[in-house]
């Protein structure tokens, strides 16, 4: 199911948020809608959750539509951008929050799981970035997602950190390739954040231990991360370009 947009805001700025049906993606979609963006909420399979995100935006007076697409499918992602252009007028901000996680020691990781992880986190990041590079309006912003584990190097995070290191490399290069169009390209690298992606499969003791790692001594929240994304998507954050912002409460 997709949702018909309400009347567009006066600003006319449009954001696509992949993985927008829950977790950090939902918080980002809601925050950008609160900042007067018309939001395209992309989702892979959870139609009900995507509609809940849209409903939370439209009930607050915002504009949003839900559009299903596998981020690793180039035709589906092209159609996602088509919807944004045909129904909302164009694309000014792309936030690629879609992702998956596999936790296992490198010696034990199932290579089929690794392939699925890389399909979403690496191929999907390139597919979304490719369409963004072609179709973002001048003056826009692209925000990808890495992870602070690229730096902290926690055991069992090898597959996930490897996929996100690829995102960081792509971020630096894409920022330079879009020279001349006034488009900023950055990535946000959250630390431990209280989402289903992070919490699933962890014991209460593990969660408490990880929450104590940052000097601020708590887990991040989706709203914490959404605030960073909103800054990068705003005029105030536009001078930040080609960077990875580690939003992690002070983890090294």
Q: Measured on Cα atoms, how large is the radius of gyration?
A: 17 Å
Number of domains: 1
Proportion of residues in helical segments: 40-55%
| Strands ordered across the widest β-sheet | 3-2-1-4-5-6-7
* Distance between the amino and carboxyl termini: 43 Å
Class based on secondary structure composition and strand pairing: alpha/beta
Descriptive keywords:
252 residues, alpha/beta, Rossmann fold, 7-stranded parallel β-sheet, 9 helices, 13% strand
List the helices and strands and how they pair.
Layout: E1 14-18, H1 23-34, E2 38-43, H2 47-58, E3 64-68, H3 74-88, E4 93-96, H4 111-135, E5 141-145, H5 149-152, H6 158-177, E6 184-188, H7 196-199, H8 204-211, H9 222-233, E7 243-245
Parallel strand pairs: 1-2, 1-4, 2-3, 4-5, 5-6, 6-7
Helix pairs in contact: 1-2, 1-9, 3-4, 4-6
Characterization of the model:
- The protein has 252 residues and is α/β, with parallel strands linked by helices.
- The chain has one domain: NAD(P)-binding Rossmann-like Domain (Rossmann fold, 3-Layer(aba) Sandwich), CATH 3.40.50.
- It is 44% helix and 13% strand.
- Strands 3-2-1-4-5-6-7 form a seven-stranded parallel sheet, with helices on both faces.
- Helix 1 runs parallel beside helix 2 (47-58) and helix 4 (111-135) packs parallel to helix 6.
- The chain is globular.
- The termini are far apart.
Question: What's the quick description here?
Answer:
The protein has helices at residues 23-34, 47-58, 74-88, 111-135, 149-152, 158-177, 196-199, 204-211, 222-233, and strands spanning 14-18, 38-43, 64-68, 93-96, 141-145, 184-188, 243-245. The protein is α/β, with parallel strands linked by helices and 252 residues long. It has one domain: Rossmann fold.
């Amino acid at each position: 199911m997709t949702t018909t947009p309400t009347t567009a805001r006066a600003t006319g700025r449009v954001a696509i948020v992949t993985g927008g049906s829950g977790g950090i993606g939902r918080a980002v979609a809601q925050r950008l809608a609160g900042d007067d963006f018309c939001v395209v909420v992309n989702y892979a399979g959870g139609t009900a959750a995507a509609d809940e995100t849209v409903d939370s935006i439209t009930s607050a007076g915002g504009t949003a539509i839900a559009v299903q697409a596998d981020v690793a499918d180039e035709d589906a992602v092209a159609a996602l951008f088509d919807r944004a252009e045909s129904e909302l007028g164009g694309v000014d901000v792309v936030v690629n929050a879609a992702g998956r996680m596999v936790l296992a020691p490198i010696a034990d990781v199932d290579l089929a799981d690794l392939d699925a992880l890389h399909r979403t986190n690496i191929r999907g990041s390139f597919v979304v970035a490719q369409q963004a590079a072609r179709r973002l309006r001048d003056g826009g912003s692209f925000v990808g997602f890495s992870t602070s584990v690229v730096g902290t190097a926690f055991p069992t995070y090898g597959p996930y950190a490897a996929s996100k290191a690829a995102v960081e490399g792509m971020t630096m290069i894409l920022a330079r390739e879009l020279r001349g169009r006034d488009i900023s390209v950055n990535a946000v690298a959250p630390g431990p954040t209280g989402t289903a992606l992070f919490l699933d499969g962890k014991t209460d003791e593990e969660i408490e231990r990880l929450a104590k790692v940052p000097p601020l001594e708590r887990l991040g929240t989706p709203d914490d991360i959404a605030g960073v994304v909103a800054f990068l998507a705003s005029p105030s954050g536009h001078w930040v370009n080609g960077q990875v912002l580690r939003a992690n409460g002070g983890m090294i």
